[in-house]
Amino acid sequence: MSKVKQLDKNYIAVTGKIFDVLKFLIDNGPRQEPVSFAQMAKAIPFSRTTIHRILYSLEKLGYVKKAEIAAHYCLAIKFFEFAGVMVHCNYLQSICRSLMNELKERHLESVNLGVIQNGQVVHIDVVQGTNVLRVAAFPGERNPVHCTALGKAILAFLPESELNAILGKIVLDRRTPKTITKKSILRAHLAVVRRRGIAVDAEENLSGVTCIAAPIFNDAGRVVAALSLSGPTSRMNAKLSAMKNDLCASALSATRMLAPLDEVEQSALRALGRYTWDGT
């Protein structure tokens, strides 16, 4: 610790130690691989007791979890809910805005960029369509995950433990007569989304509105967001196939910018490229 920080009465020393431990887990856990306590104790200039107490406290708060391997730790889902969205939102907006504008120019419908936070979909960017009659959310708007294309596109590619955690906390409220309200049916529906690589909200959130969405992955192969096109069902149905192809290509472009590794690109290609629109 620097002498300046030691003399600063407003500086809480343990805060710096907590973030040192978190940073070590981030920097030394590639692809979320567990980090050993021995490795941390050797590299971080604190006592083993201090590091253990910090890990214990972060685990109790839900930001760190013990791995299946003894004396190994990794970041937990709550950390990504807290930090991941904030870290990625601005970057996601910057790389997706041009892609969103291109989708809007090509299809004239509203384009949305969303993430999941606290069991809801949060719209972090919106490009409104140019039609007089259009469907558009606004940045910061929150919607249910179970009946929106954005929500389903992300849910479908989450690890099973994270999906279970989210579904265990939410109620599948009926928004329209077409809303899925049973979790067993939703799980089966998400399996179809995974197989097709695209999610469809066929008037499940708003009557008369159809939305399609494709997932975006980061450099660890983790789904972090989704892109969607939305509009009145009467217009959307006539061009769903072409929109699906362009949307998947845009989501893949965003993934490539977030995940330049070949194996991740190949994974995204497999996820986004095997869906054939059949009108259902």
Furnish the topology, listing elements before pairings:
Elements: H1 3-7, H2 13-28, E1 35-36, H3 37-43, H4 48-61, E2 64-66, E3 72-75, H5 77-107, E4 110-117, E5 120-127, E6 142-144, H6 149-155, H7 160-167, H8 183-196, E7 199-202, E8 209-217, E9 223-232, H9 233-236, H10 240-258, H11 262-273
Antiparallel strand pairs: 1-3, 2-3, 4-5, 4-9, 5-6, 7-8, 8-9
Helix pairs in contact: 5-10, 10-11
- In CATH terms, what is the fold-level topology of the largest domain? Beta-Lactamase
The count of helical stretches stands at 11
Instruction: Please summarize the sheet with the most strands.
Output: 6 strands, antiparallel
Provide the CATH top-level class of the largest domain: Alpha Beta
* Unreliable parts: 1-5, 261-266, 273-280
SSE succession:
HHEHHEEHEEEHHHEEEHHH
What this model shows, in words?
The protein is an alpha+beta fold and 280 residues long. It folds into 2 domains: 3-75, Winged helix-like DNA-binding domain superfamily/Winged helix DNA-binding domain (Arc Repressor Mutant, subunit A); 84-273, Beta-Lactamase (2-Layer Sandwich), CATH 3.30.450. 49% of the residues lie in helices and 18% in strands. It is built from 11 helices and 9 strands. The protein has a 6-stranded antiparallel β-sheet, sandwiched between helices. It has a 3-stranded antiparallel β-sheet with strand order 1-3-2. Strand 4 (110-117) and strand 5 form a beta hairpin. Helix 5 packs across helix 10 (240-258). The longest helix is centred in the first third of the chain and has 31 residues, at 77-107. It is elongated and about 65 Å long. The termini are far apart. Mean pLDDT is 84; it is low at 1-5, 261-266 and 273-280.
